[in-house]
Write a sequence for this structure.
């Protein structure tokens, strides 16, 4: 035990000395091992993970077939550059397209990079007729690069990095009138939004709103771009959150759960817009390596063969019912909202405090927005995991309410 403590202490010291402090690390915890819905810290303490690395490990930790695919490909070929064909990239592109719409895919490494690509797509198309402004949403989050920061509605992320990259118009989410007024600007070439805002506090787009936005974009011949980085890859019970709405975007981004933890991002473009980004207009050294694509192919295969989407919907129904019961019997919760296993609890008590108490009892959850507790469990959870999480949340919230 003492040896372990010393080892963790030494690692904390190295982290402190040598890793830039851009993250508020959770103090005193280092995770050493993960399997499915569970994580173990360096003391061997077990946690139920209802965060999934922020919607990344949607199939749970170290999913056996994803791990096997990574192992197999790593011993065969890791990288060749996009100057050459590799055997996994076209296979993955075909899987993404067959589960979304007829189009083509560009591969990259992260959510921000995928959104950058969508922004470039919109500008390249728009600039050919003098249009280059993109309408984006207040409270949105699109990444930490300069363009995606400028697109991000949550202003705290932009603080200190001014000047903002020009060309973005921020409007309130779910407000069609505000969007239509902004779209009257003839320089507008696209609308970019998250079908369900994640960092903004788990706020789904209203169905009527999204349908009207689609119509408006068609009427004005501007692109509708969706950011599916957090809400995609099965999180809402469909492959992509937009599939819940009966409309299609012109392009969408994905990352996070695409590789179940192996870094890979992508954006997908409708076939009618595919000639906009031709040879030489966009590139990424590590985009779509055989290794990353092998991991993501295994993710798609597991989603299919293990009925992950069906399970997501089933467990979602159970969790929502349990959470609503806590809200009515314990109180302290203003609203339970979201879709599938992307769940937000708008709290009347401090969400950060509840998160901390839950972690002490072995349940990892997240916060988002102003005062929202965010649950993003792996899509492979079972009823017994939901029961455990609900019981921990009930106890913690009751204790908070009674001042224990
Ligand atoms: C909706 C959304 N878009 C983009 C990003 C940025 O992704 P990455 O951190 O992989 O660049 C995130 C990350 O949380 C996100 O939630």
């Amino acid at each position: 035990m003492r040896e372990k403590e010393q080892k963790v202490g030494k690692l904390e010291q190295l982290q402190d000395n040598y890793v830039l402090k851009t993250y508020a690390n959770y103090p005193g915890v280092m995770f050493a091992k993960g399997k499915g819905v569970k994580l173990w810290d360096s003391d061997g303490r077990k946690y139920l993970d209802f965060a999934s690395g922020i919607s990344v490990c949607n199939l749970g930790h170290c999913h056996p077939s994803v791990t096997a695919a990574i192992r197999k490909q790593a011993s065969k070929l890791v990288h060749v550059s996009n100057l050459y064909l590799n055997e996994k990239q076209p296979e993955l592109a075909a899987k993404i397209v067959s589960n979304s719409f007829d189009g083509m895919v560009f591969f990259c490494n992260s959510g921000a990079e995928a959104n950058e690509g969508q922004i470039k797509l919109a500008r390249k198309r728009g600039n050919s007729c003098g249009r280059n402004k993109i309408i984006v949403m207040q409270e949105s989050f699109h990444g930490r690069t300069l363009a995606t920061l400028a697109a991000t509605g949550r202003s705290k992320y932009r603080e200190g990095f001014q000047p903002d990259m020009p060309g973005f118009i921020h409007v309130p989410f779910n407000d069609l009138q505000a969007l239509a007024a902004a779209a009257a600007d003839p320089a507008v070439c696209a609308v970019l939004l998250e079908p369900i805002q994640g960092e903004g506090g788990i706020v789904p787009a209203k169905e009527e709103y999204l349908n009207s936005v689609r119509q408006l974009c068609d009427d004005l011949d501007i692109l509708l771009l969706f950011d599916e980085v957090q809400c995609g890859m099965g999180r809402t019970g469909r492959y992509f959150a937009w599939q819940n709405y009966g409309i299609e975007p012109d392009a969408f981004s994905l990352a996070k759960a695409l590789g179940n933890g192996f870094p890979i991002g992508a954006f997908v473009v409708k076939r009618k817009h595919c000639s906009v980004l031709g040879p030489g207009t966009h590139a990424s050294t590590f985009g779509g390596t055989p290794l990353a694509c092998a991991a993501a192919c295994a993710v798609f295969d597991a989603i299919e063969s293990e009925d992950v989407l069906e399970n997501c919907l089933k467990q979602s129904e159970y969790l929502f019912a349990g959470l609503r019961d806590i809200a009515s019997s314990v109180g302290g919760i203003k609203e339970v909202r979201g879709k599938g296993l992307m769940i937000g609890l708008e709290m009347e008590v401090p969400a950060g405090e509840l998160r901390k108490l839950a972690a002490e009892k072995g349940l990892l959850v997240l916060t988002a927005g102003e005062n929202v507790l965010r649950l993003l469990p792996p899509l492979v959870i079972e009823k017994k995991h939901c029961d455990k999480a609900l019981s921990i949340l009930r106890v913690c919230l009751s204790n908070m309410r009674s001042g224990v």
Q: What stands out?
A: The longest strand covers residues 333-339. The pocket of pyridoxal-5'-phosphate is lined by residues 54, 110-112, 115, 141-143, 194, 198-199, 227, 229-230, 255 (CB under 6 Å). The mean pLDDT is 96.
